[in-house]
Amino acid sequence: MVQGLPPDHDKNDESTGFERWPAEAPTAAIARVVLQLDEAITLKRRAAAAWLTAHGNVLPALPIRPSRMELAVFMALAETYGTAVVDAPRFLPVLDFIAECGAVKLVQRVMYGETRATAGTPTWVESENERFAGLLREAQVAFEFLCGTRPEVFLAQAHNALQGLLQAPPMPPEPPTPPQPPLESEDGERDDG
Asked: What DSSP string runs through 27-58?
């Protein structure tokens, strides 16, 4: 259920043809949250690009404006958390990660990122994956939907890794060579010693 959003005042009883919303389109409140997320991420990326440009003419890894896939992730977050995703301080690490690494990478890390599976000291990536997975637990259903509808985007790294494994099966080890018979002498008889 969407948290912190007022209901739309439009009647959305008939089907609109949207795959995700069988009887209704996204509400105006969700659209406002998506626009706020778009604005916040664009501002963070613009500031990072200006800093990178001022300190060495390095190009940013991500475009300044979020992509369509990132907007789909923003919509999933807005539907799940409402205005809290923009206003609540607990979501600041999520917004920072999206600005730095991208929303697609966030979904990959939440859904399929490595976590502490064995005893021992976790790496910082495993700790961050656990933190994001815990923080965005309610959005996992929406993220599963995104991964299911666009696997070529969200599962591209897994697909590439699987293709690499499937293309070249490991070669079996060569059988050991049988022991060589003793050398023969020039006259054709065995030379055992």
From this structure: PHHHHHHHHHHHHHHHHHHHHHHHHHHHTT-P
Q: Which two tokens stand for residue 60?
A: 């940013």
Give the predicted TM-score (pTM) of the model: 0.64
Domain that holds residue 148: 28-115+122-166
Q: pLDDT tens across 132-179, in order?
A: 888 888 998 888 888 888 888 777 766 665 565 566 556 677 777 777
Structural domain contains residue 153:
yes
Q: Give the separation between CA 110 and CA 104, rounded to whole angstroms.
A: 10
User: Token pair for residue 24?
Assistant: 């209704």
Say if 129 falls within a structural domain.
yes
Number of domains in the chain: 1
